[in-house]
Known about the structure:
Blueprint: H1 30-33, H2 36-39, H3 48-56, H4 59-69, H5 78-90, H6 98-102, H7 112-121, H8 159-163, H9 195-204, H10 214-217, H11 228-238
Helix pairs in contact: 7-11, 9-11
Amino acid sequence: GLTGRNSMGLANSRWYQRGSFFWDERSATLEIQVLQPIQNAVEMGMTLPLLEARLNAEPYYTEIFNQVFGTATPAVTSDRIARALAQFVRSIISTSTKYDAGTASNFANFTAQETLGRQIFNGQAGNATCAACHGTDNFVPGPAINNNGLENPYLDKGLGAVTGRPQDEGLFKVPSLRNIALTAPYMHDGRFATLDDVIAHYSTGIHRTPSLDPNLAKHPGAGLNLGAADQAALIAFLKTLTDQP
């Protein structure tokens, strides 16, 4: 079956300033988040008591759980599973991209197109404001959760469905852009198949709503109105954020 939303990438999750997880941030910590797919009927379809019973029946697991957490009976608990899975997710980091290699040389390794894309991304050329929501070298958001103008009216209210507050409708967690070229489809509902589709949305596909992110709302009309060359440059830059083997 299909889940209600598209899965987002996990790279650099440990550095999300807001700390909460899922597109609507309904899980306050990674320890809470990692147990949810196990219990989701469409994903793993498992109950936590059944999972604990199965793992406690396997000496391999009871031994390693006790090695890590200390001897206890039962050795495997939901709390211990959550802590182990959350620490694994925190270990998924991105550090080996063309972008990372370029930070030591003022990006002398970039092509002219990639350089232009980086300048557009950072607001040094054109009128894009990408870095406002995807800041720092980790390309993760700061303290904000954003509405990027995907639809009006809302088919999915995002954070608003959790809080019940009208001002939260259309707000979704902003994922890291690291390895973005490898994580299609894009957005919380997977509506965009390619990066070209994503950039086209920000250029001319913005839907204006009361909660639209101010960095998008300040532009008139339906978006940033990027030319074809600027769109291609942005995509070239985004592809420099892919880890290399």
